[in-house]
Amino acid sequence: MSKFRPVSAVIFDMDGTILATEAVIEGVYREICEKFKKSFVSDVRLKILGTTEQNSCRTVIADCQLPCSETDFMRDYKSLTLERLGNCELLPGVERLIRHLHSKGIPIAIATSSSKDSVAVKTAKYKALFDLFHHVVTGSSDPEVKHGKPAPDIFLVAAKRFAPSIDPKDCLVIEDAPNGVKAAKMAGMQCVMVPDKNLPQDLQKEADLVLTTLEDFKPEEFGLPPF
Predict the structure, then answer these.
(1) CA distances from 20 to 85, 88, 132, 206, 226 (A)
(2) Is the pTM of the predicted complex or chain greater than 0.90?
(3) Tens digit of each residue's pLDDT (9 = 90 or more) over 174-220
(4) Active-site residue list
């Protein structure tokens, strides 16, 4: 018997969970910091993982002591990321899982801290795959998401937008970032974490299950149809 609660829907984070975007995004932060002769340090990276673009911007400016406005930072960030994020690869096991859940009639959605414009660029290469999702909630641009991860707002909005809406306790979240895991747990959802291999162990402990890749995910452990 599984130690996990059966679920009826799955909500995916996108950056670092579906798409290998994190190295590109971190490179953009480093480039902007270097422009002001400042360093983008690992502590800041961990702090902003999974947060909205606006919150990440404010944190980087403050913690790296950048002499620029939020407007200037966001202009550079958007320009560089939209230029570079179109060719990111899918992470191991994710396409198989998405197609499997969809084929079995399991409602699936995306809850990403990215903006709508950013999502459009990142997903264009895989349009057929992303069309399988019932809906996408974009935390950096959705007016219903009042507070970004680690607040639970984005996952509660995602659960509500299924048709019909699904009780948060019946949703499983798949995440890579500590802030995303916290948000899922605050929303009353179970969470599978697929962290970056360099993420410290103590930042993985809030997840219900930690996997190396989604190739290791067993849907039946959460009451979902097996592969």
Answers:
(1) 9, 6, 19, 23, 26
(2) yes
(3) 999 999 999 999 999 999 999 998 899 999 999 999 999 999 999 99
(4) 13, 15
